[in-house]
Amino acid sequence: MNADKRRAIFERLRAEKPAPTTELHYDTPFELLVAVVLSAQATDIGVNKATARLFPRANTPEAILALGEEALRDSIKTIGLYRAKAANVIKLCGMLVEHHGGEVPRSREALEALPGVGRKTANVVLNTAFGEPTIAVDTHIFRVSNRTRLAAGKTVREVEDRLVRLTPSEFRKDAHHWLILHGRYVCKARKPECGNCCIADLCEYPQKLRPGSVSPT
Hints:
- This protein is mainly alpha-helical.
- It folds into two domains: 3-19 and 135-196, Endonuclease Iii, domain 2 (Orthogonal Bundle), CATH 1.10.1670; 29-129, Orthogonal Bundle (Endonuclease III, domain 1).
- Helix content is 57%, strand content 0%.
- The protein is built from eleven helices and no strands.
- It has helices at residues 3-16, 29-38, 44-54, 61-67, 69-76, 82-100, 108-112, 119-129, 139-148, 156-166, 169-185.
C-alpha cells in the first residue's frame, strides 16, 4: 500500500469520527488504567458494568487498597479471569502508592513495571490519558492492518512498529481509536461489512465483499 492510499484511509476514518476515544468508561488516568487491565480477554461492555460497581466504591489506589482484594473480586467477578485481575490491581495499587505518590506514571517503563500492565495497556494509557501518539495493537487492529494491507505484519509488535512508522503524524494520535472501532463494527473478523465500509475502494483485501456477497470461508 502506498503513502497516498494510506493517507486517504485515515482521512476518511477521521471524517467519519473526528474525535474518537475509547469505549471504556473512565474519569481519571487511574480509572482508565484499571479498566484497561480488566479488559484483557473481556469486552468493554463487560468491563464498564464491572467498573460501574467498583468506581463508586473505590476509584483511587488508596481506596482500592482499603477496599481489599476480596471485595475487589466481588465487584469485578462478572468478567473473565477476575481473581487474577483483582490480585494484579491490588499489587499495582500498592506500587503506585509506594513509588509514584498514588499517581499514574507517564513513562512506558514505569507503566510496564506495574503488575498486569503490558505494552498494549501502556500504549492505551499513554495515548488516551496523556495524549501520546502511541498505537496499541489489539486483535481488531492486528486484523484490520493485515486485511487492508495498511500495515501488514506477522506479530503484534511488527504491526505496531509499521503503523507508527507509516501513519502520517497528523493521524497518529487517533489512529488506534479509528482502527479499533473500524475493526469492531465494520471490518469484523468472521464477516467484514465491506458493503458498508468507507474505505472499501482503498482496501487491498483480496476477498473484499460487495453487498449481497457471501463471506469467504
